[in-house]
Amino acid sequence: MLVLAEHDHGDGTPTHDHPHTHRRRPQVIARLARIEGHIRSIRQMVESDRDCSEVLIQIAAVRSAIQNAGKVILEDHFESCIVSAAARGDHDEAIEEFKEAFSKLVY
Amino acid sequence: MLVLAEHDHGDGTPTHDHPHTHRRRPQVIARLARIEGHIRSIRQMVESDRDCSEVLIQIAAVRSAIQNAGKVILEDHFESCIVSAAARGDHDEAIEEFKEAFSKLVY
Asked: CB pairs below 8 Å between A and B: how many?
């Protein structure tokens, strides 16, 4: 019951046919919360007409922070979905999942 | 007085020695507000354990949105700070500002 509740779309439909855990989820949530605050502070910088160059530095910083959050999500994804597919012997599925997830983050 | 108020750091110190306007500021503020909401919704996706691949798609989307907001800020910067420096005949300063701003956003 707990496992199902952790792995549904909120409407009861499962998101995976192979339930798994994401060790880094609290870290990802904390990173995203910080990024949200960072974006808000950049908006406030623009509203108070701070130097373009200062704003651009913060834009680059928050973009890196998002990329890093994506990497952590990808690490979790590798360790859970993909490794568990491999452990079940679904090597083709594991490789496809790896390629698909990787292509989403790196282009 | 209005010009000073628009171009200080909030503590009275000017941000530029060449006051200027940013035509696209309302657009930049609107974009950043949307990005903030987007990040919040991604956090909620992670909290409700949505598929990693769906989360990664949104991470890539919000990263593009940030990059595009940066481009709009850069366009404003070119049209105001840099072009006004060039108009004053400070071509070296204009080129340096261009290179510096560009290097912040593109790496």
From this structure: 131
